[in-house]
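Please go through the protein record below and see whether the fold suits the sequence. Record follows.
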Amino acid sequence: MKIVAIHHDGEALALFQKIGVDPYGIGAMTPKTRHVNILLSARPCKVANILKQEMLSLGADAAVSRGSVSCAVEATDVLLMGTHKQIGALAGKIENQPFGLDVLARDLRVLLGRLEKKPLLLKTVKREIVLGERTLIMGVLNVTPDSFSDGRRYLNFSSAVNRGLQMAEEGADIIDIGGESTRPGAKTVALKEEIARVVPVVEELSAKLTIPLSVDTMKAGVADKALKAGAEIVNDVSALSGDRKMASVVRKASAALVLMHMRGIPADMQEGDLRYADLTGEIFMFLEKAVQKALAAGISRERLVVDPGIGFGKTHADNCRILNKLCEFRALGLPLLVGTSRKAFIGSVTGDAVDRRMEGTAATVAAAVMNGCHIIRVHDVAAMKKVAAMTDAIVRAGMDS
């Protein structure tokens, strides 16, 4: 006997076919091969008790507070524990029940759909990008004097353009151009200065390259000029909180938008108490609210990407925890971007200076891809493209069995 690891429906299908299971049985049993734990926060005791009983009736279970049965507490978190099929069956059993259970049934179905490993579509003004077939490489091009890794190296116009062309040759799928450092403690750059740094580089690369260009900025004025110069993605580390005009600029340009989690601003994000009561939970809720803000502003869901913000207001240990739990963000149902390249938390583990963190970065890239990342943002494009390709091969092994 042996343990069988089933990561997706394709692996279950291949195994059932090898056994010789009836086609009807394959359809019925495939959702039973994968288990999911869903945490519901602060549910009234009457709701928790219904969920507990319904899950038990399905052969699954739900963990609730010990005081919920007698309603000694007003509310309790609920951990639903079951297979995909059991959670789907729960949705069917509660969809016509009171106390908001009908809404919960709808949300559970949406969540189960988002957990399916299927390609996602990212739309820009110029193209539709399929995400999920392989991990895409976003090359970092800092046109700044003070970035933590390569400050001043590409501040000169010609050196910046040449580096952009080089990254494209090395296999970058996207180039992310930024004119304001977001390293811890970084100071704000004046609007005109940031435009002067970024826009000419975007314009030149746009004329010479066919791959999409992204602008890394929190300023709507910079984004507007860069999009008109040929960029088609805005990478906003403030998640629309830095400039109230940003959402309008993105919407009018039909651009794609990256929403990143950060507590505070770069100048102070690593100061004070960095503890989280629920690390991934708080990041998840922040990103969900940012997504809703973007949708309310008229930006379509197919134009959004989320980023948990490695290194932005987190401890070194928390950055590792985020990578370990990255798959939890799949519940947002959006492409996931991760940027770990050369960051300080890698040096805290390996002891290496910023210019010697290649191996540590490679490990974080592999972990991100293994846990569901769609786009990795890196400085060392050629090397990390190979790391991502090898990790993709491992992740996707058996999908076509």
